[in-house]
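Let's sit down with a protein and look at its sequence and fold side by side. Which protein we use is up to you, so please pick one and set it down. Label the sequence line and the structure token line clearly, so we can match residues to local backbone shapes. Go ahead whenever you are ready, and we will take it from there:

***
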Amino acid sequence: MAMTLEYGLLLVSLGLIAGIINTLAGGGSNLTLPALMVMGMPADVANATNRVAVWLQCVSGMSGFRHHNKLETQDIVPVLLPNLLGGLCGALAAAWLPASWVKPLLLGTLLTMTLVMLIKPATFGPPEGTPTKRVKDIPMAWLGLLLAGFYGGFVQAGVGFVLLAALCGTLHYDLVRGNALKLACTLAFTSLSLVVFIADDLVRWVPGLILAIGTMLGARVAVRFAISANPKVLKAFLFVMTLIGCIAAYAF
């Protein structure tokens, strides 16, 4: 399908919504991936093109969180290393494995995250005043970040939930700081993913950049909301997004 004004506006609008959802929770790609596929893109091309918007959304969101001093940097290198390794492996898997693997992995992950939120809600938001921990002190955090990176490199959609489980559940970051670090992790493994996808000529730049206009604006809106919102509201939004993500993954 040729790019038209109407389709461009649709991509920007969906990108705006997806940018808000991805910055505060995860699963925004459940909106943008189908939109790209409506253009006639195969699943692997849509998956690769979507990363352009995700990459720029992360840059925009991180800039906003850093402006409000909510982006923790003291442990960022140990956080990013397993994420990068997992992201590279996931991107290579996405480029080589059948696209039919995406849906089962996406649906299974989102269902798992929903159950975790129901059974152990503190995983996605420790009690106020809980001190944060370092990656070197929690071996499970390294494994969780590695798996989150692999999932993000392979699927992308819903990776925010997996990252928040690792960052908030094992390292005890609150949801605001967890979301800020989540964007840093996503930026890291998305950078590697893009290199792989560009090398395989899977990225379609025009729709990807148009979509990115919306995701960058959405990230900025989401940061302002996160800074002022009640933690209970953020957690409720996160839970609702996991439910919607499950429905969208099943329908997709």
